[in-house]
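Recap slide: Helix-turn-helix domain-containing protein, sequence and predicted structure.
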Amino acid sequence: MRPRGRLRIHFTGADLTRTQIASGPDPFWETVLSLCRLRDQAVPPPSSSWGRARERMSRSAYELLSALVPVRGNFPDFLTPPEGLLGLEAGLEALLSTPLQRMRADLAALRRRIPAPFSTMGTRNAVVMKALAAAVREYYTVMLAPHWEVVEEVVRADQAVRRHLVHRKGVEAMLAALPSPLRWESPTLVSDYPIDKDLYLDGRGIVLIPSYFCRNAPVTLIDPVLPPVLVFPAAHSRSRSLADSGRRLAPLLGTTRAAVLRTLADGRSTTELARTLGISPSSASEHAAVLRNAGLLTSVRWGNTVVHELTPLGRALLHGIQDGRP
């Protein structure tokens, strides 16, 4: 479907000086945009294994997220809190703290029927939000964490190019180099868009967020009062595919243990590790033991749960750092 409207982002001189480029990928924007892509039958998944990973998600979590995120169209602003740029945990905390009034306003702004439990928010607000936060965490763990190495590499490469442009030629040159359909018509950034929309920055500046899973048109928040952001396709999104995840470590550790090491970048229990990789808990435990004996991870027992974390050596190996230096 061709966009029928136009997005116009109006800059002042102050906005140009306050334009920022995000420092890394945002797990919440990547969650929402990848879910749109996952649900769109007309668009092939980035890799066949990524598409099949959906089968490892619980039905309740997938349906809860799908109730808010259509294949095409708006999703509520509270799903992409600005704290997401600080990481998954900070974003989840912000999501859980969303006031009921803000949530109702965001849902009303969608201008479409919202199914339960979101249509019956009230005294059960805290219960629903805990379930939503758990669903976001599960989606990230199953669908994104195993491939975050690639997502992060692609997004950071895009950000590096844009920062270089700002340093060499200034903010306007960087805005002019944003990917199509974005066009810099000073002092306005213009793009084809599903609707007609004017966003006046009014001296607040804007945060530019390249995204691995954003495709074609850029995305902004619905509420113009919120801190302005613009999400757009990372220019180098085809430089590496999700199928490349872990290939650099595979010859050294073996495919499964490389995947274990990568998945443990944020810490996981044995059960979470097994679920993410689609292996049995006993197999996950065995692989973790081998990596632990090699000094690449530590394991701590909390009650009946064993939580694994990478050691500095494990992180150095994962990120390609030698002797603790970049």
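Residues 17 and 223 are 23 Å apart (CA to CA).
Residues 5-23+150-233 form one domain.
(End of recap.)
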